[in-house]
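Private note to self, pasted from the team thread so I don't lose it. Backbone tokens:
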């Protein structure tokens, strides 16, 4: 089975956000989706959960100063 990997969506989204005047509070993180609609690759949901918690923590620190 041939698998195409495109990637880099996270970096493109981050660039677009910054280009529109947004501020990144955490570095972008990429996750591989199997097929067109998923599921995520094994272990990605756990990584995404950890990444989201990091974002919340960084946002709390930044906006509670």
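Design output:
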């Amino acid at each position: 089975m041939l698998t195409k990997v495109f990637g880099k969506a996270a970096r493109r989204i981050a660039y677009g956000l910054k280009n529109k005047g947004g501020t990144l509070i955490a570095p972008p993180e990429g996750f591989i989706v199997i097929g067109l609609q998923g599921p995520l690759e094994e272990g990605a949901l756990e990584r995404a959960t950890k990444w989201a918690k990091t974002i919340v923590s960084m946002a709390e620190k930044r906006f509670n100063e």
